[in-house]
Amino acid sequence: MNDYFSIVSTLYSFFTESGVTNKFFKKAQEDLQLTQASVLKLWAITRWDSRWQSIESVIKNYPALILALQDLIEEDSGTRSINATGLLVHLKKSIFTISSFILQKLLGITTILSDQLKSPSLDYARSEYLISSIIQQIADLRNQQSFDYIYCHATEFCTLNKIDLVEQYRPRRTTTIPARFEECIIPSTLGQREVLSTPIDFCENLSTVYPDSENFLNIDDVKMFCDHIDGDLQAIKNEFLVIKPMIKSKSVTNIIEFLDELLPMVGTFPNTIQMIKAAITMPVSQVTCERSFSKMKLIKTYARNTMNDDRLSDLTVLATERSFEIDFEQVVDAFANNHKNSRIILR
Where is the HAT C-terminal dimerisation domain (predicted)? Predict the structure, then answer.
């Protein structure tokens, strides 16, 4: 799999970082008149949905990729031609095609889960059930019917693109245990330890502060989360009983809006607000500013010659604190007053 990931990443870099190679790729798409032609997608390390999109774009544009690499080998010379030759050899291997269809099937299922877990408002109980469902779906793929489905699609693809499906590969050396470890004994605990609680139990407790959850403000499922934040259980139950009828008349759809409704009454509902803050800061997916950081990195890369760290930091703050209202007219006026010698008339 590491070889496959490396090939897909290198393929994206090869056709996007150079205008010459990208021109050959676009020309190949036009010559083949691909109805599903699209751009190649980046294989990102931290985003699972990008991996499925990357594999999907390679499969759709496979004929154009082969033609573009062949044209580069014939018409170009030097390092670019050598790199194109290496990529062409790997793309024509049957193991690459088989891996593409297997990963397309698996990542297509997990992409749905990835989208759910990235939601700004996440119902933990439902997400736990979705995770269990996805795991079961992947386990159900281990049968002859699923194998035949993938194999038939891969065979049809190989026949269409003239790929040798029964290509012989040099066998790799079998991994063996070193001789110095043959008689080693590793003491470890065996057997099933008693499980006092499961992740689904904690998720159900956590979902009590999510307005879009069926478990919202349920006083019977709050103890575990209350113990986690060292809160007063009876005080939280009393606050829930007061909040429940009060919040019915409000159009609260997510946990952030729920927090905004209670913040003016922080002295009245301190324990509930503490629970909400803990629920918001607990999952990585709730820290939506992380996505802004990745975009700031791209901006820094493209504008590295004109942007210093202070400006990048200021842009990051603006992107993170999007809820703050900014009067752009005042910003432009302030900039014009501070830079009166500018050749661009802003006022």
Answer: 254-322
Helix 19-32 with 62-75: angle, nearest 10 deg: 120
Please, are residues 110 and 130 in contact by the beta-carbon 8 Å criterion? no
Q: Which of 95, 98, 89 is nearest to 65 (CA)?
A: 89
Half-sphere exposure of 297 (CA within 13 A, CB side): 6
Alpha-carbon distance values, 70 to 30, 207, 265, 289 (Å): 15, 55, 69, 43
Q: How many whole angstroms separate alpha carbon 244 and alpha carbon 250?
A: 11
Query: Greater confidence, 141 or 310?
Result: 141
Q: Determine the Cα–Cα distance for residues 97 and 104; give it in Å rounded to an integer.
A: 11
Residue 170 banded pLDDT, cuts 50, 70, 90: low
The Cα-based distances of 9 to 13, 26, 166, 325 in angstroms read 6, 19, 26, 40
* Rounded CA Rg of the chain: 28
Residue keyed to tokens 């809006």: 257
Output the six-digit token pair for 110: 């997990």
Q: Which residue has the tokens 């043959």?
A: 182
Question: What's the CA gap between 29 and 64, in Å, rounded?
Answer: 5
Q: pLDDT digit string (tens) for 56-93?
A: 888 888 888 888 888 888 887 778 888 888 888 888 88
End-to-end CA distance of the chain: 58
DSSP 8-state symbol, 221: G
How far is the C-alpha of 302 from the C-alpha of 304, rounded, in Å?
6
